[in-house]
Amino acid sequence: MFAIFKREIRSYFQTVVGWLFIAAVLALYGLYFYAYNLRSGSPYVSYSLSAVSFIVMIAVPVLTMRSFAEERHTKTDQLMLTSPVPLGKIVFGKYLAMVGVFSIAMIVVALTPLFLSIYGSVPLGESYVAVLGFWLYGCACIAIGMLMSVVTESQVIAAVLGFAALFLGYMMSSITSMISQSGNLLTKILNAYDLYTPLDKFMNGCLDLTGVIYFLSVIGICLFLSCQLIQKRRYSVSTKKIAPGAFSIGMIVVAFAIAVVVNLVANELPSTVTAIDATSTKLYSITDTTKDYLKTLDQDVNIYVLAAEKNADSTLSETLQRYEDLSGHVKVSYVNPSTNPTFFQKYTTDAPTSNSLIVASDARSRVIDYNDIYEYSYDYSSYSRSLDGYDAEGQITSALQYVTKDSSELPVVYEITGHGETSLSGGFSEAIEKANMTLTELTLLKEEAVPDDASAIIINAPTSDFSADDAKKVTDYLEKGGKALITTNFQYKDLTNFESILKAYGIERVDGIVMENDSSYYYNNIPYYLLPEVESSDYTSSVSGKYIFAPYSEAFSYDGSSDNVTYTALLQTTDKAVSKIDADNATTSRKRRRRY
């Protein structure tokens, strides 16, 4: 076999074929590497490899077309057929030679993440998982191309058949989606020849054992079929004996059966065993906190994905698979909106976006909109957005807790209204919902007191004063151990009754707007665009070492003399900060130095 390997690989470099193949792969990869990684600054080489995967379908048939077709055309295959070397070793030796040529190109590709790391941080784990997946994909394509070379003596026909077979495997996912988005027996059979979906998992940074087994199965089947097709030409057998064709068909059936069983078993294994999260942010990993929670889950919960399984978000599907593997009480189902457009009406009146989730138990349900799973930042100057985070675990775990908790365990937060309070932003309301709190408006004028079920109240920047009675209701609630989140608006003063709530705890508002005179603590050369110091506390631990942007801020002062009150400063300005009473007419940010 080694002699066959040496002869074949030498022949590829004694002709233009090997050099042309390597040059084509590296040139096209280099083009995308320059566009995506060097010019656009992306640290992920998987983008470039994904783009080149289509080019492999064109380059591989050029490499494989002569492997057997040329020898058959020149009749030199007779030497191979009569050789004492086992046929399997001949086929495997030729295959390894072509893989060797491809591997030379991949070695160069494997150096690019290291080169890219010179310019910044590169997720090497993700990069090399993508390189491994692409190498396996290429090896499978070579095996398919070699099989096409076995069936014909024309190199041109072998190349055309090779391209057609690879193109079919590349497009199979789209073809089956056109046949049936919800899936049926035919699409399941056809998807067995879906070459791109296993590759896509590697490109997303997931080292997937099922993908490795699939590509190895394709390689094994193609090499075995190549041996069987050559074997049929190797012997002429009397009709009185068992025909080699019958033997070949039986062996082929057995080989396919073994491959199918191995892949079925691999796909039945939990993703915690078959998939390794190689992403730098541990995108697919489930935290220990969630794992511990899922171990205690004792109620059945259904998670409905509003998308055909074939068209569902692959990253989200991988996360959901891990939830299903970690708890026998979690069941994930895919609902195709095209065939079942009114399904969502059982749980909500507003139609969720595609790929949204509905988490439902016997007690209640929650809709997780697809737009809440991914976190984006927006650049309004260029009308563009960038992906900042993936919050599937946070949203799903929160929803599971919400639908399985007893009603008495769900906190109620009251938003005080009736004094021109600023409405809570969508992001803040969503955060409250994610924490499984029920947000309810409360007009104090209509109530004798803050309800007993209040876990907390929110007073968000009132613009008109409280009545003395309303202020007393709030202070009575706080004296009983109640909790409150209170904010103010510097533009509205003389709110005597409202301020009495703060004064009851030794806190006073400072007139004016805070301006910082230390340039390290404000943004864009604007003194009232504060970047205050983040003090160390349990409340600020998640933002420690980060910037908090606080424009148009009002200061609070406290004497700290009360023995019954503990004061914890969360954000503070420097000693150079001042409070400007008439900010609109201020000509300087200096004067009246005070620390807040």
Describe it for me?
There is one protein chain. This protein has 20 helices and 21 strands. It is of the alpha+beta class and 596 residues long. The protein has 3 domains: 1-277, no CATH class; 296-401, Glutaredoxin (3-Layer(aba) Sandwich); 408-580, no CATH class. A 4-stranded mixed sheet has the order 4-3-5-6. The protein has a 4-stranded parallel sheet with strand order 10-9-11-12. Strands 15-16-18 form a 3-stranded antiparallel sheet, with no helix packed on it. A hairpin with a 2-residue loop joins strand 15 and strand 16 (526-530). One of its GO terms (cellular component) is plasma membrane. Residues 281-349 form the DUF7088 domain. The chain crosses the membrane at residues 12-32, 44-65, 95-116, 128-149, 156-179, 211-230, 242-266.
Write a concise synopsis of the structure shown.
The protein is α+β, with helices and mostly antiparallel strands and 596 residues long.
Topology:
Layout (H helix, E strand, L loop, with lengths): L1 H13 L1 H24 L6 H19 L4 H5 L3 H5 L5 H30 L7 H27 L4 H25 L5 H6 L5 H8 L2 E3 H26 L9 H25 L2 H4 E3 L10 H9 L4 E5 L8 H13 L3 E5 L22 E4 L4 E4 L1 H4 E6 L4 E7 L1 H13 L7 E6 L8 H9 L3 E6 L10 E7 L7 H12 L4 E4 L8 H8 L3 E3 L3 E3 L6 E2 L2 E5 L2 E2 L15 E2 L4 E3 L12 E2 L5 E3 L16
Parallel strand pairs: 3-4, 9-10, 9-11, 11-12
Antiparallel strand pairs: 1-2, 3-5, 5-6, 7-8, 13-19, 14-21, 15-16, 16-18, 17-20
Subcellular location: Cell membrane
Membrane topology: Multi-pass membrane protein
Pfam families: ABC2_membrane_3 (PF12698), DUF7088 (PF23357)
